[in-house]
Design a protein that fits this description.
A hairpin with a 6-residue loop joins strand 2 and strand 3 (83-88). By secondary structure, the chain is α+β, with helices and mostly antiparallel strands. The protein is 48% helix and 15% strand. The mean pLDDT is 85. Helix 1 (2-23) packs across helix 2 (36-49). This is ATPase F1/V1/A1 complex alpha/beta subunit nucleotide-binding domain-containing protein. Pfam families: ATP-synt_ab (PF00006).
Amino acid sequence: MLLSIERIITPRLALTTAEFLAYQCEKHVLVILTDMSSYAEALREVSAAREEVPGRRGFPGYMYTDLATIYERAGRVEGRNGSITQIPILTMPNDDITHPIPDLTGYITEGQVYVDRQLHNRQVYPPINVLPSLSRLMKSAIGEGMTRKDHADVSNQLASVICTLTFPLCAFWFCVATGY
């Protein structure tokens, strides 16, 4: 149980320290949180010890809210010069993207970079799989005045080609969704 408590406290301690450095000392701070899967497992252990009613796959029902209180501590505060950038890293149990930990993290964060075990095993470095990776902020950061005018179109076409080569049925649905 003591190790579970340590795994729960560590990200909050790191972020409290980062907030001091960012907002009191006006620094730009990078916080790398590894492994958030271990954090969520610790939440499950403590929840079970407290005999709370379990949610999906035995994780506590409040896990979404709990993870959000951590992930949402990144950013800037108006009137302060510092900032906090967060890179939370998590593993997907059995490479299951629908597992509660990556699933909830995906809802909370603005983007995910998917590091693929199969690409790594084929010695592709960095083993980033662009299809399941995403950025919810991309549309507001591309286009005329920021990147090439046709950035969005080129990005969609590239995703379509990759999808076609990787998953032929996926290409059909991509074309239906985007009009390509």
